[in-house]
Design brief:
With 223 residues, the protein is α/β, with parallel strands linked by helices. It has eight helices and eight strands; from the N terminus they run βαβαβαβαββαβαβαα. It is globular, with a radius of gyration of 16 Å. The N and C termini lie close together (8 Å). The structure holds D-xylitol-5-phosphate (DX5) and zinc ion. D-xylitol-5-phosphate binds next to β2, β8 and α7.
């Protein structure tokens, strides 16, 4: 069964706790959290203090997507933030971008040593050949299907073959493929068919056209 991971980047930050509780009660599988530093991407979002605060509002696994330079310097801080409120971090994911750090193999293993699922994210322009040596150290592969930095962008259609290739690459392993960016009612089925295991949806879940619940139900009905 494909998992839906609403990206809280598009939620109403003035009532984030309520929005997260509603997201969990609406059938979401994970909470996707976009951490941006204004350097790796041209936007600044949330940090470990906010992760600590929102962890009180959900029992769902947290899927932290670091879009920051030098992620190694912050891994332990984020691991601690996830562990607040006695949460079981073994179900959480902590992911960084391969373009942001030289020593990916070391950092993936460090995340696992901290008891968290390890993930690596690839920008649209980064080839799959960059991760072939990392397969034994990773639990999650994030394929960006927009240029990271903002919610509400359009899915880059030319990423579909990359998703299919990635599916072949991880065959025989437990690595999950997460597709992030521009997922909507229009394209969710073909993205799932291409091989995605987890689908992030920001604008498609938190837009004003319908409730969070209705949006999640509609997306789930299509896959
Ligand atoms: C973009 C973020 C995404 C984004 C997805 O840099 O990594 O997670 O919030 O939002 P939508 O689904 O609106 O493209
Ligand atoms: Zn993301």
């Amino acid at each position: 069964m494909v998992k839906i991971a609403p990206s809280i980047l598009s939620a109403d930050f003035s009532k984030l706790g309520d929005e997260i509780m509603e997201t969990e009660n609406s059938g979401a599988d994970l909470i996707h959290i976009d951490v941006m530093d204004g350097h790796f991407v041209p936007n600044i979002t949330i940090g470990p203090l906010v992760i600590e605060a929102i962890s009180k509002f959900t029992n769902l696994p947290m899927n932290v997507h670091l879009m920051i330079e030098n992620p190694s310097a912050y891994i332990e801080t984020f691991a601690k933030a996830l562990a607040k409120n006695d949460r079981d971090v073994s179900l959480d994911y902590l992911s960084f971008h391969i373009e942001a750090f030289y020593h990916s193999h070391r950092l993936l293993n460090k995340i696992r040593e901290l008891g968290i699922k390890s993930g690596i994210a690839l920008n649209p322009s980064t080839p799959l050949s960059s991760i072939t040596h990392l397969l034994d150290s990773m639990d999650l592969l994030i394929l960006m299907t927009v240029n990271p930095g903002f919610g509400g962008q359009s899915f880059i259609e030319s990423m579909l073959p990359k998703i299919k290739e990635a599916k072949k690459l991880v065959r025989g392993s437990d690595i999950e493929i997460l597709v992030d960016g521009g997922v909507s009612e229009k394209n969710i089925k073909k993205i799932r068919d291409a091989g995605a295991d987890i689908l992030v949806a920001g604008a498609a879940v938190y837009n004003d056209k319908a409730s969070i619940k209705n949006n999640i139900i509609r997306l789930k009905a299509l896959v």
